[in-house]
Amino acid sequence: MEVVLNVLRKLPGMDSQSATFTLDLPRASTVLDALNQAKWSQDGTLAFRSNCRNTICGSCAMGINGKASLACGTRLADLAKTAPGPITITPLGNLPVIRDLVVDMKPFWQGLTSIAPALKPKPQTTDQESLQTPENRAALNQVSNCIQCGACYSECNAVTVNPEFPGPHALAKAYRMVTDSRDGAIASPPTMPRAAASGAAPAASNAPASAPWRWPRWSRSAASSRPYSRTKPPLPAEPSATAKPWLTWSRKAAGSTSGSLVCRWWAMIWGVWLAWCPWGSIC
Ligand code: SF4
Ligand code: FES
Predict the structure, then answer these.
(1) How many domains does the chain have?
(2) Res. 96: pLDDT tops 90
(3) Domain membership flag for residue 205
(4) pLDDT value at position 81?
């Protein structure tokens, strides 16, 4: 099948520009196969990362038709079905581009290390292994499958607006650690409230006294750190119905804010518009 790749390329010290490669490949090929073919047969300076070619190592994540995906896990035939036409390849987002499709993963790894991504085993009381039940292990299955590819980091709007945010991959790793039945850093996962009313850390009654649970360094504990406020300004005070009940009634009845209905009747009868009012200044 014929495939057209539009690759966003960036050379050091130059602006990004698009390069087009037209290739002929077997239908079972992946985007990584296409990039390899382009590099080997058309332009040996094309830079991208890959290693396992089997969706294991996470090296080949990149933007494919606007969505961060693994190049070795995306088949050309599938793309042709869902989005026929040229395939757009871009580097991962939220990360500085070094060259072409190669990005600097340092912020991604810093986010991961900020949550101390290692098991801290409970003190050993016997010389037996620290065993897990099948149920305990099953609770870790999904988050243990993270291959650190960076696709979620690339798509994360929270990272875009706040580079201090460690990223979804770090939260997945933190969840994986605190959920592990063998972890001794926290007796059981803390209950994290959606927002702390006073900016104070949440009560972590299950945390051991020697290692109190704290807000992670990226969290915003103070209410003032919110970049916007949804608090509406107070509404203007309603006229007091007890002080001048006739005023409230007459204004509502007339839909007016400048005079009572009685005044309007008086004005219609006598052809005088509020010039002289027998009730003084009641309205
Ligand atoms: S959680 Fe993120 S880094 Fe991990 S495999 Fe999924 S997309 Fe990749
Ligand atoms: S090359 Fe390893 S995940 Fe794609």
Answers:
(1) 3
(2) yes
(3) no
(4) 93
Asked if residue 200 belongs to a domain, the reply is no
**Signed CA dihedral, 182, 184, 188, 193: sign only:** negative
Q: Specify whether 139 is located in the same domain as 81.
A: no
Counting from 1 in the atom list of ligand 2, the atom nearest the Cα of 55 is 3
Distance of CA 92 to the CA centre of its chain: 15
Cβ partners under 8 Å of residue 90, min gap 6? 8, 62, 63, 66, 101
Indicate if 113 and 90 belong to the same structural domain.
Answer: no
CATH number, domain with residue 182? 1.10.1060.10
> What's the pLDDT at 36?
97
Residue nearest to atom 3 of ligand 1 (CA): 148
pLDDT, tens digit (0-9, with 9 covering 90-100), for 205-246: 333 444 444 444 443 333 333 333 334 445 556 555 454 454
* Ligand 1: centre distance to CA 154 (Å): 10
The kind and range of the H/E element at 252 are helix 245-254
Residues 111 and 153 in one domain: yes
58 lines ligand 2 (CB under 6 A): yes
Answer whether 75 contacts ligand 2 (Cβ < 6 A).
no
Does the pTM surpass 0.85? The reply is no
Ligand nearest to the CA of 36: 2
- Ligand 2 atom at minimal distance to the Cα of residue 72: 4
Domain membership flag for residue 39: yes
Tell me, yes or no, whether 254 and 177 share the same domain: no
Ligand 2 pocket check for 60: Cβ under 6 Å: yes
pLDDT of the residue at 220: 31
Q: How far is the CA of 201 from the centre of ligand 2 (A)?
A: 40
User: 20-35: string of b/e by CB count within 10 Å (b at 16+)?
Assistant: ebebebeeebbbbbbb
Residue 237 lies in a domain: no
Q: Pick 273 or 18 by higher pLDDT.
A: 18
Average pLDDT of the chain? 76
Same domain membership, residue 179 and residue 265: no
Q: Which ligand is nearest to the CA of 35?
A: 2
